[in-house]
């Protein structure tokens, strides 16, 4: 039986060589498609290597083993938490600039055709046929992104202490982008022109920033009123 995805540490995979980055990306894309279609246990490394048109040894070279490749695929082939956080965590950014960066992390993958849908299918399959990587993703992927967003909001709201309401605001702001990704097929069915071309997706970014700014403003007013009531 194949190794469990959590049994191999991240350190077992080597850093990619510059002349092999295309092979590494082909493995990620082939792995994404096959894992999403068949699941972890029913997908062999040989099938992935053949689909990627690389030698099967390349999986060991770049990812350590099948488990390492699965973790890399599940985390996302186009960006890392550090990449996404860098889009919005710079203290020098205005709030609108930071929010544009935040939503770019959700919208740009939608411009890559079926890849985002395959990622969503893989996440659903992981929940139905758990291997353990979802908990890793929460700790190593979702949590740092959330904490960076909370810090951003605290800074722009002038708050010294993080409270539950700030977490709630961050989750609501992020939910706009999450829904855009996971419900892409629903959007296509209800209003297909909203996702029909890159310009339509760019317009999503403008609108999401506008809606998020309204949320931040509403929370700022709620806090101000609460402070007045205590006087």
Account of the 3D structure:
- This protein has 231 residues and is mainly α.
- Helix content is 69%, strand content 0%.
- It is built from eleven helices and no strands.
- The chain is elongated.
Please state the structural category: mainly alpha
Could you tell me the strand content as a percent range? under 5%
Distance between the termini: 66 Å
Low-confidence stretches: 7-13
- How many alpha or pi helices? 11
Q: Can you give the mean pLDDT?
A: 88
Binned, the helix content reads 55-70%
Shape: elongated
Largest sheet: none
This entry's quaternary arrangement is single chain
Overall radius of gyration = 20 Å
What's the helix-strand series? HHHHHHHHHHH
Number of strands: 0
At a glance:
The chain contains 11 helices and no strands. It is an all-alpha fold.
Structural features:
0% strand, mainly alpha, 231 residues, 11 helices
How do the helices and strands line up, and which of them pair or pack?
Blueprint: H1 21-38, H2 45-52, H3 57-63, H4 66-75, H5 81-86, H6 95-107, H7 115-128, H8 133-157, H9 164-182, H10 184-190, H11 198-229
């Amino acid at each position: 039986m194949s190794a469990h995805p959590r049994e191999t540490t991240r350190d077992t995979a080597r850093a990619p060589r510059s002349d092999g980055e295309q092979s590494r990306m082909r493995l990620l894309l082939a792995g994404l498609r096959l894992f999403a279609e068949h699941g972890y246990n029913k997908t062999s490394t040989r099938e992935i290597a053949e689909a990627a048109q690389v030698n099967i040894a390349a999986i060991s070279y770049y990812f350590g083993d099948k488990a390492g490749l699965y973790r890399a695929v599940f985390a996302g082939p186009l960006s890392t938490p550090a990449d996404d956080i860098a889009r919005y965590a710079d203290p020098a950014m205005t709030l609108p600039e930071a929010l544009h960066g935040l939503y770019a992390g959700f919208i740009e993958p939608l411009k890559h055709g079926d890849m985002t849908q395959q990622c969503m299918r893989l996440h659903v399959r992981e929940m139905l046929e758990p291997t353990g990587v979802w908990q890793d993703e929460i700790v190593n992927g979702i949590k740092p992104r959330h904490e960076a967003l909370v810090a951003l909001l605290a800074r722009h709201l002038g708050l010294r202490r993080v409270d539950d309401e700030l977490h709630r605001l961050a989750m609501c702001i992020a939910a706009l982008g999450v829904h855009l990704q996971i419900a892409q097929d629903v959007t296509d069915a209800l209003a297909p022109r909203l996702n029909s071309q890159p310009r339509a997706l760019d317009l999503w970014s403008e609108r999401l920033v506008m809606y998020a700014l309204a949320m931040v403003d509403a929370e700022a007013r709620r806090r101000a009123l609460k402070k007045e009531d205590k006087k």
